[in-house]
Structure formats: structure tokens, C-alpha cells
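User: For my dataset I need records formatted as: sequence, then C-alpha cells, nothing else. Please produce one.
Assistant:
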Amino acid sequence: MLDRRLLGFSRGVCLRGPEAGIVLVRALWRADVRLEDWSPDYEMTQRRLVPQRAVWDTLSIPTGYEPIYRRILFEAIGEPIVSCS
């Protein structure tokens, strides 16, 4: 990792099941990295490099979460994300 920047936090509450009422807080980060040669180890079996312009069309975004994903990506790369599809 060459550099990193905290973009913000998300907060959610479990609504059902044995963890109902538990508050989850997640940190959202941007990381500048240098990729080196890689071979699969442990639980990672593959990686896919995606050009910046193709990120939006590559993600699986749950319905209703588009605005926060767009904001995270805007904060990370500094320009609006536009779908190419």
C-alpha cells in the first residue's frame, strides 16, 4: 500500500435474528496500491483488475444503495461515476 485515506463511515442496525439490535459501523477507505505478481493462497482464488471507467458496471449494487456507492466512488477517484451500459 502506497497511501490510504479514510472516506467515511456507514452505520447499520441488525433488524432480525440472533443479532437483532446490534449496531454495525464500517469504515470506508481509499487505498493507493502497487500490484505485484500474485498467485492464489488461502481463501482468495482469483483477482480481477478493472479499469476505472468500468468500475460501476462491474459492481453488484443492491437496489437502493446506488447513491452511497456513487458517493464512495466519487470520493475515491475525484470525479463522477457514469454507467457505460
